[in-house]
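Q: Given only this backbone (204 positions), what sequence would you predict?
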């Protein structure tokens, strides 16, 4: 993709990102491998409550690195070594403290990202409304982390749901048809577009 000096290839993949983005070796990088038996329960954290207003517009685009779903008005980290077919990230920014998304994206408390695992089944995912993309159980793990792609800002409070949502194999095939390449380039399937787990560096 023009204007980008990173990707997922042999010469510009995640193991090279630190050359242009030194924060890649920072103390709260994402994703991480969540080991349930090693997590620490925090009784101060309340049950998660989520309220989305009705979406008036949805835009879906291929950024060349991932699929971006934008709502108007609105595989990344393994668990115990297990990876899922796909992972969905719902990105939220702290509008009570920051004027713009760009400002929030570089602040330590700027972003909250909901991580939702997708699991293949016979059930079709019928709606892209964010309320319909949440699992039935809102039990979650949370940790302080970063964006999983450059610029890798350490600005994210991650909320990773323990329960996956189901999508049909037919729908998963649609994801597998996505391309890294542009129209006049040789077709290159969008696969292995994930960053390996990063060191915890004291996080629990």
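A: Predicted residues:
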């Amino acid at each position: 993709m023009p204007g980008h000096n990173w990707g997922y290839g042999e010469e510009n993949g995640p193991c090279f990102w630190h050359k242009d983005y030194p924060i890649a070796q920072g103390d709260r990088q994402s994703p991480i491998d969540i080991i349930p038996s090693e997590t620490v329960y925090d009784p101060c954290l309340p049950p998660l409550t989520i309220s989305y207003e009705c979406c008036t517009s949805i835009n879906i685009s291929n950024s060349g690195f991932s699929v971006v779903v934008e709502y108007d008005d609105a595989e990344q980290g393994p668990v115990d070594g297990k990876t899922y077919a796909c992972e969905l990230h719902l990105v939220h920014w702290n509008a009570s403290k920051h004027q713009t998304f760009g400002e929030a994206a570089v602040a330590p408390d700027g972003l909250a990202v909901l991580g939702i695992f997708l699991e293949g089944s016979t059930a079709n995912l019928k709606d892209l409304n964010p309320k319909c993309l949440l699992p039935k159980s809102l039990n979650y793990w949370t940790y302080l982390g970063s964006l999983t792609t450059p610029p890798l800002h350490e600005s994210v409070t991650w909320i990773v749901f323990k329960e996956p949502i189901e999508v049909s194999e037919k729908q998963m095939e649609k994801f597998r048809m996505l391309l890294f390449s542009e129209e006049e380039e040789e077709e290159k399937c969008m696969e292995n577009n994930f960053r390996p787990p990063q060191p915890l560096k004291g996080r629990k």
